[in-house]
Structure formats: C-alpha cells, structure tokens
Design goal:
The complex is a heterodimer of chains A (360) and B (90). Helices cover 2% and strands 41% of the residues of chain A. In chain A, a hairpin with a 7-residue loop joins strand 18 and strand 19. Chain B is an alpha+beta fold and 90 residues long. Classes of the chains: A mainly beta (360), B alpha+beta (90).
Chain lengths: 360, 90
C-alpha cells in the first residue's frame, strides 16, 4: 500500500498526503490560503493539476510535471461572442471538471457558465467547444444550481472510443458526443427533475456527478439532485437506484469501482432543503449489487452530531482504499471497502476535491 | 509617468513587482502596459470580457474608477494609481 497518495483540493490550498510505513503523512502543501476547486493527477501524462479560484483574482490553472514545481498557465477564456445569457458576456467563473485524452496531448476542462474547453497542448491554450456552447437547449433550458449559471462538473472520455465524450452539467443534464465533440445530444431518458414543471424534461436535469466503471464503460452512475441513477447502456437509459426507505438518495458525491460494475459508494445528505448529514450522523452507503441494496458503513465515523456533507469531487476509491473529505474539514479513509474508517484529520479546511494517485 | 501601487496580496503572485512607473492616458492602457512588463497580471485584474474583476478596485489619485467595464478613466502624468482588492474574511 506504500506510496499511495491523496490529493486534497481545499478552501485553503492543495494538500498532499502519502501513505508510508503504515501511516498517512501530510507530505506537501501548495497554494497555501488559496481555494483549490479541483486537484488532479493525470497518470497518462504524468502531470499534476491545480484549478484555483482566487475569488479576487479569478480562476487560475496551475500545472506541475514533478509534483513539486508549479507553473501557471493561461486559464480558459470565453471568446468575445460568447454570451452566458442575452446581453451578458460569458466569463470563466469556475473551473470544475478535468479529463485527459489517453491517446493524445488533449485535455478538457468544464466551467461555469457552462463552457467546455479543450486544449490540444496539455494546457498551453484552450478553445471553447462551440458545438456544446451553441447547443439550442442552452439559452432556454440550462440554468444554475446553487450558482448563477449552469456548470460542467463531469467529463468522461470513453476508455476504448476516443470519439465518445459525456459531460454532466448542473443544471442541464448529461450530454453525449459520439464524434469527439463536433455534435452533442442530451441523454437523460429515465432521469427525473422533480423541481421542474415537467420532471421528465429532456434538458434541465441536475446530475451532481457522473462516474463510470472503467472496466465496463457502458455502466454509468450519477448522484443526481433527485436520487441515484445507473445506466448499463452508456447513458441511453437511466434507472433510479435510490433507497426507498433509507439514506441513499440525495447527495453530491458518487464513486464507482473501476473493475466491478455493481459497486459504488455515496455519502448521503438529508435533502435538498436541509443539506446536512443524514440524522446528523456521517454515513457512507455502498452497493455491491448495482444499486438494488445499499449497505450503511459507519464504523469509525463520528456518531454525531455531524453536519458534514461531501462535495461532488471529494469521494474516491482505488483498488485498496476509499476516502472522502467533508465541508467541515474532516477526511476519512478506509482500507477495507468502507467497513471501517480511520480519521486522517479533523482540522482541515473545507474539502472541495479528493483523489488517490500513485505517481510511480 | 503615472505611479502604480499594487496591493501586497497581488505581489505574492508577481514577486518582482515594486513601485512602477507607467506612461498611459487611461486605466485600461495602464493595465495593458503593466501586463507587458508583468505577463499575466491583466488576467488577475480583468475578467474574460475585459471588465474589472468584481472584487478588485482601482483608484486614480484616490478616486475610484467609474468605468469598470472598459476602464476608460483618464490618467495624467504624475497621477497615482492604486490597485487593491476588496477586503473579505474567512
């Protein structure tokens, strides 16, 4: 297990923990005091990424080729003719999603107000994907969920088909391109948006996060505003797999096992109206049967009162570990699939993102 | 030449900035000149549309700029330009 690392994007910087000699150690802190909305290690290009939101100074992109020395790159910029809504020029407000093309130097970033950007040069420059931006549904049917404008939080590149791209947008739904981004279509059949006059609307759904089983790429999961949904055909149809009488329903984060298409984890919150831990107790839920049933995993987690929730990018698993970070600065790890949890720290800043990486 | 004074918060990211003298007739021109000498600083001050970022303020001789969208506020030789960020807690 040695040399496994955790990248934490927090409200006060990028923290790197390393597992060594049977303990987790805080190895590095970068961008001290600066909000990091997403921290990511790209194992394909051996590149570390930190997407920052300075508040005062805007969103910034930083890259490192060795995990120590960082360089700032130009952040995605909306072109002059891009309008967030009628009469309002678009400007990057949040960098919220990242994906790396395994077959080229290309990377993708998702932003608020809803623009998907691509760089062909591993981040040297970015171009707005005009096809998605100009999708006829955007102006009338995309809207902000907790933010002023719609935002892209999930970008999934198909592991076997470079032309297939999925994005998750709050609030619009899941969109698919089968021609590397030239055309897009919503794939939200089976989702429900019970906050809309028409809950089955093709566009206007609110996936909070979209994830995939890498070994079975047609199996997709999403923690949605209105429940947990799963697809076994690449998103063409979605089936709700929430618990009817249990906590696994509302939340933000979801993590899918890379090998087993039936295994996923969520960290539920009470509801849309009351975003705190269910019963004021931190609970992780795990399914091993494709969402038919959910186990409640609490050993080692605080018995309460807990007000923690887990943001969408702050839950991750790899072959040996599961971990999550919370809005109140707690990080928990498990080395046995969530059966028992150990606290990494109770004293961190709000956690925006958590990710395992192995740089070897 | 106008004198430009930069908030210490910004000096964290542009370490070689000290007191700066810039020849310009508008604030927008001054920021362009500043960016030529300190590449990237414009993106810290202005958003994608060229407007002053929401929580950034610029004062010319103690008067807050009026045109936050295009920054055409006039600057004369020997004016003092202060670039500051809004104070915020947490």
């Amino acid at each position: 297990m040695d040399n496994v690392n955790i990248l934490l994007g927090t409200r006060k910087g990028l923290l790197v923990y390393q597992y060594h000699h049977n303990k987790w150690h805080l190895r590095d802190v970068f961008f001290e005091g600066i909000p990091v909305t997403l921290a990511h290690f790209d194992p394909i290009k051996k590149t570390w990424w930190a997407l920052l939101d300075h508040g005062h100074w805007g969103c910034k992109v930083h890259r490192s080729m060795n995990g120590k020395d960082w360089e700032e790159l130009p952040a995605p910029i909306y072109p002059e003719n891009a309008f967030a809504k009628e009469g309002v020029r678009a400007s990057t407000r949040l960098l919220w999603a990242f994906a790396s093309d395994p077959s080229s130097d290309a990377i993708w970033m998702g932003t608020e107000p809803g623009g998907l950007f691509k760089s062909e040069s591993n981040g040297r420059d970015f171009i707005l994907n005009q096809a998605l931006w100009n999708h006829p549904s955007r102006m009338e049917h995309w809207f902000g969920g907790g933010r002023d404008y719609a935002a892209i939080h999930s970008i999934l590149l198909h592991p076997d088909n470079p032309n297939n791209i999925l994005v998750g947008i709050s609030c619009a739904g899941v969109f698919e391109s089968t021609d590397a981004g030239l055309h897009w279509r919503p794939i939200n059949n089976g989702l429900k948006a019970d906050f809309l006059p028409n809950p089955n609307a093709e566009v206007g759904q609110d996936p909070h996060l979209l994830v995939r089983c890498q070994a079975k790429p047609d199996v997709l999961w999403q923690q949605n505003h209105c429940g947990i949904f799963r697809s076994t055909n690449g998103g063409r149809n979605w089936e709700e797999v929430s618990e009817t009488n249990g906590p696994a329903k509302f939340g933000f984060a979801i993590a899918a096992d890379a090998e087993d298409p039936d295994v996923a984890f969520v960290v539920p919150a009470v509801s849309d109206e009351n975003r705190i831990a269910v019963g004021k107790e931190l609970i992780v839920c795990r399914t091993r049967d494709g969402g038919k049933t959910w186990d409640r995993l609490q050993n080692g987690l605080p018995k309460g009162p807990s007000f923690d929730i887990v943001y969408r990018h702050a839950l991750d698993l790899n072959r040996e570990w599961v971990a999550f970070g919370t809005t109140t600065g707690n990080v928990y790890v498990s080395s046995n699939s969530g059966e028992e949890w150990t606290c990494l720290s109770n004293h961190l800043p709000m956690v925006n993102s958590l990710e395992f990486f192995d740089a070897n | 030449m106008a004198q430009v004074y930069i908030t210490s918060n910004l000096k964290r990211f542009f370490k070689d900035i000290d007191q700066i003298s810039i020849a310009c007739t508008t604030v927008q021109e001054g920021i362009e000149r500043l960016d030529q000498e300190h590449q990237g600083i414009q993106s810290y001050l202005l958003d994608d549309t060229g407007a002053l970022r929401k929580h950034v303020n610029i004062f010319v001789n103690g008067t807050m700029v009026q045109d936050r969208k295009t920054l055409r506020d006039k600057v004369a030789a020997k004016d003092k330009i202060h670039i500051i960020q809004a104070l915020s807690g947490g």
